[in-house]
Amino acid sequence: MARRTLAAAIILTAGALALTGCIPLPPAVPAAPTAPVEPGDPMQPTESTEPGATAEPGTGGQVAGEEFTVDDGFGDVWTFSVVAVEADPPMEFAEPEPGTAFIGIVIDGEHLEGSLDFTGCFDILVVGSDGEQYDWADTIGTATAEDDIFYADTQSFTGARAAVQLPEGVTPAQLIFRSVYGEPEVPDTVIDVQ
């Protein structure tokens, strides 16, 4: 927490100095073009993604069930695994929009260091069979899954669910867990869905 506070103080001080003209701003770096992700492309996973644990038959795919540990470099360390990917997960609130369907990503997690909850530390993305990326954050405020990960315990949880909306006929090909504070230095955790 102290590192996060110190980093915020440094950024605010540098911003204040830049606004007063005391230090010149560096030239803008052009953004790299984003290319669509092909479902079979290697995306530099943080660990191997060999098949292991599976979802229930007919639910949405199989996942490795491996455990991943991610240190964001700002005081939070989480260990987590994806235990299932479900088609049509149980929902407490909301129906999918016409022409779309929900998939559920079922996650177990343990907070090893820090105080920020799981959804504050990670962006949860799904690469569909169409090569497009779909963000769990797009369902916040519009849909709530049973055992929704947004409400998961900040220290340890099992069976928390992130519901992501995909177009009908699109299946999940990969799951991406991106460190909110550590990116781009902290590599994405990429899990193949089979």
Automatic annotation (TrEMBL):
Protein name, per record: DUF4352 domain-containing protein
Keywords, in A-Z order: Signal
Signal sequence interval, chain numbering: 1-31
Domain of life where this protein originates: Bacteria
Region of interest (Disordered), ranges: 32-65
